[in-house]
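The protein record minuted underneath.
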Amino acid sequence: MKKATSLSRIALQKFKRNFWGVFSCCFLVVCVLTAIFAYALAPDDSENANQMHLSIHSKSPGFQATVLTIPSKVPEESSSLATFFMGKKNTASEVPINSYSLTSEGIAIEEYNEEGEGLQKEYALDQFPKAVSVEDIPKHYIANTKFLLGTDKYGRDLLSRMLIGIRISLSIGFVAVFISLITGITLGAMAGYFGGKVDAAIMWLINVTWSIPTLLLVIAITLALGKGFWQVFIAVGLTMWVEVARVVRGQVMSVKRMQYVTAATALGFGHFRIISKHILPNSLAPVIIISAANFAAAILIESGLSFLGIGAQPPMPSWGGIIKDHYAYIILGKPYLALVPGVAIMSLVMAFMLIGNALRDALDVRN
């Protein structure tokens, strides 16, 4: 077998030998695929998995209920592709029932009530377009629904909310790390390469930003930009570039003294080409490791902001928001409503930290 001599191949082989790094990488691939196909996997494919059943709120995992589906009178306007990735906007209403009976004009139901007799209602046949006769209503519109993770305090399917919520955590990580890398690498490379007043000015900005607590700075930026999904992306990204800039600055100051950089300067290459083609490719190993840690930090910050109510806004599902809605249930006998999203956040953060450790070991030239 031919022995690998390329540094990248050697690092890849070392990474493959790290069990927890490979396991975490596979776990994250599954999480990414779950986020992409979340609405296809979720039992509740309505937009934001926001189908409420107030009569069956806070039910335990595995709860089953008979549900009558009442079609929406508003036609579906979005395309099938948009529905697949973003959910259905105009969804049917779902009514949990205790029992039903067919009448000459339609169906009579008794709504679900665990304490006794429920509210009686009747629905005409013309409200069910797929039913030719009243006998077709149960076949097409009544089903026994199982909630694998139970329901939240609004009667929404917790599994569906968790599946859709993974999009928030992963997207905030990707966008925040992307913003931090672009800003941090640019400013750090300029400070390390040019030095002098440019370095002094950028280091002053880095030290000022570094001195402000991250969470307070994120809250300030979020309040200035307004509450919302994209505002959190920008706020978290603009607070995570400092560590990247400091590391890149140190690496560039070390690499720019190498002979191949001196040769490139002597050949008359421009500053941009020297930085982008010769210095940065040999300086980014520590940045890759920091990015994994920043990814985990971004997920935690977003969860904290959503818990405080200034992150992703309802009805958009966020793991931090789910904990906020149900943390009181920990002492009310239903702790799983808060523990399930908590364990999910812990697992995702742990996966990124383990990948960061594996990358650190793989890229360490001393091993």
In short: The longest helix spans residues 158-194.
